[in-house]
Amino acid sequence: MKTVPVTIPDLLEWKKNQRIITALTAYDYSFARFLDEADIDIVLVGDSLGMVSLGYENTLPVTMDEMIHHTRAVRRGIRHALLVGDMPFMSYQVSDQDAILNAGRFIKEGGAQAVKLEGGAQVLDRVQALVGAGISVMGHVGLTPQSVHQFGGYKVQGKNYLNARQIKKDALGLQKTGAFAVVLEGIPADLAAEITAELTIPTIGIGAGPQCDGQILVTQDMLGMNLDFFPKFVKKYADVGDTIQSALQDYIQEVRSGTFPDEEHSYRVERKPLRKVENANGA
Ligand code: KIV
Predict the structure, then answer these.
(1) Where are the beta strands (DSSP E) in 144-212?
(2) Residue 208: how many CB atoms within 10 A of its CB?
(3) What would the pLDDT profile of 124-136 be if each residue is shown by its tens digit?
(4) Active-site residue numbers?
């Protein structure tokens, strides 16, 4: 396992050298350990936490306290990857002051090295304020899930000329304002390739084709643990959900039939049989 931490200058260097960046999400200690052992470059505590771990319908209800709680758990499992905390809905939209205080919590309390926030032109002032306060920012444009109601669902963005142009302007604006990387989500592969070619900071794609500087997925999606969501851009690298289901069914069946616990999983010691307990004090 690598223990030298990945840094933001490393990511910028890798963009120059065309060394592809790998990223996945985590929400707890045990998954963070697995990802770090596997040598992932970036771990994002995404606000997808709300849907994956907390059972919300979308990411909008996620609170700062929930994000910090999970970021702290992930921090304890990581020695190598760069840890990025995702700013939840309404933690940065209202004012620069809110944004700095909340982003500061990710760094001070959560142990994150950077924060991510969604949006383009409308968040550039916030990004500038955060960078000015010494906080590293990853941008996120295209299909930004916190705008699900404005989009009318999780729909691919950048399909028409004006929308594609805006997404590209947003990405360039984020770079100019000091973001160190930009997530490109749910946009056509050729648009992502064009943006990637123009930016000097890395692009991290999700549903944005193969020509980004790096890729990110929600870990539970790529492990086949998501029971209700199968978008086209997710490749299942394992059927962990099926494995879990069959292990749970085996356990239930064995407990019910009395075959678990067996001798192998029971303790036996040589001892005198207990005397009959006469009263409640055991005298
Ligand atoms: O919340 C999240 O997990 C994300 C990534 C999938 C980019 O924003």
Answers:
(1) 181-185, 203-206
(2) 30
(3) 999 999 999 999 9
(4) 185
Q: Quote the ligand 1 centre to 184 CA distance (angstroms).
A: 10
Q: What are the tens digits of pLDDT across the range 158-206?
A: 999 999 999 999 999 999 999 999 999 999 999 999 999 999 999 999 9
210: left (phi over 0), alpha (psi -120 to 50) or beta: alpha
**Taking CA 137 as the corner, what is the angle to CA 131 and CA 140, rounded to the nearest 5 degrees?**
135
| Best residue for ligand 1 mutational test, from 86, 182, 204 (most atoms within 8 Å of Cβ) | 86
Ligand 1 neighbour 136 (Cβ under 6 A): no
- What tens digit of pLDDT does each residue of 82-138 get? 999 999 999 999 999 999 999 999 999 999 999 999 999 999 999 999 999 999 999
Domains of the chain: 8-243 (3.20.20.60)
- Residue whose pair of structure tokens reads 């729909």 in the numeric block: 155
Q: Is 34 helix (H, G, I), strand (E, B) or coil?
A: helix
Helix (H, G, I), strand (E, B) or coil at 24: strand
**What are the structure tokens assigned to 216, written together?**
């990110």
| Predicted TM-score of the model (pTM) | 0.95
